[in-house]
């Protein structure tokens, strides 16, 4: 039996890529897998057999490293969180939410600040300085003027990646710029808003010439973070990790408790105020959901 990766699941067919033959096999799935409710999605590693007519049959799904929910993709390794400083403006709260989602899915995270032609790299660096300090890997690109696209290619090489980020920041444009034969649909920011952009499409993993795969649909379209427990939220703010053990109360939620090391770090300027504010906002979102849960 062969081993392969599902690139796309569509209309009852699974398109399975086998690296040893460098071929894609249009495959059906064994009835017993369906009976056991084993769901197979893009990104899944599977064992499959090749039939006489050259098509495949999926016999087994191998264990998943992880899976993203909306859109559904398995075994993603990396998320490229793409933003722009202007057109559209950068929203730190959305960025922070995406950073949490990336970490919760256990993905490597790269922040890509695109449309650098509109603001200049120096200004963009300044705006993103804090995120650099707390350890994030940040690229500054322009799809339009082809700035630093080599760095993006390097980051994507030999990995399975998904892009994420607000509409109109240039996710599709970046992919098209590094590999024109991917031919992703791009559009003007205003057109998309008018048109309403939530036409559901099937996710497909696209093959990069330099090795690696990238999903053709942005990840994390559901921005809900309330699956995280309130007492665990602080783990998702990387710069808080140095402080959370130094609070007076071991169960400190860093919101109202006295002698909170996190709050002190905010007061001293070691943790950015906006990040702490977002922590508190997310915390109350989560607590509200937990309260609902307890009320039944
Ligand atoms: N000035 C400038 N414009 C860009 C750049 N990259 C993309 N654009 C433009 O921004 C608009 C949106 O680009 P898309 O690639 O469709 O953005 P997207 O992030 O894929 O958007 P969604 O598909 O809605 O999620 C298009 O008009 C692009 O031409 C860039 O680096 N600089
Ligand atoms: Zn605390």
TrEMBL record:
Details of cofactor binding: Binds 1 zinc ion per subunit.
Entry annotated with the keyword Cytoplasm: yes
Listed GO CC annotations: cytoplasm
UniProt cofactor(s): Zn(2+)
Alphabetized GO MF terms: GTP binding; GTPase activity; metal ion binding; rRNA binding
Residue stretches making up the CP-type G domain: 65-223
Keywords attached to this entry: Cytoplasm, GTP-binding, Hydrolase, Metal-binding, Nucleotide-binding, Ribosome biogenesis, RNA-binding, rRNA-binding, Zinc
Single GO biological process annotation from the record: ribosomal small subunit biogenesis
Domain EngC GTPase: start-end pairs: 74-221
Keyword Hydrolase carried by entry: yes
Main location group: cytoplasm
InterPro entries for the chain: G_CP_dom, NA-bd_OB-fold, P-loop_NTPase, Ribosome_biogen_GTPase_RsgA, RsgA_GTPase_dom, RsgA_N
Binding site residues for GTP: 114-117, 165-173
Residues the record lists as binding Zn(2+): 247, 252, 254, 260
Pfam families listed in its UniProt record: RsgA_GTPase, RsgA_N
NCBIfam families in the cross-refs: ribosome small subunit-dependent GTPase A
Family: Belongs to the TRAFAC class YlqF/YawG GTPase family. RsgA subfamily.
Its biological purpose: One of several proteins that assist in the late maturation steps of the functional core of the 30S ribosomal subunit. Helps release RbfA from mature subunits. May play a role in the assembly of ribosomal proteins into the subunit. Circularly permuted GTPase that catalyzes slow GTP hydrolysis, GTPase activity is stimulated by the 30S ribosomal subunit.
Subunit structure: Monomer. Associates with 30S ribosomal subunit, binds 16S rRNA.
Record's protein name: Small ribosomal subunit biogenesis GTPase RsgA
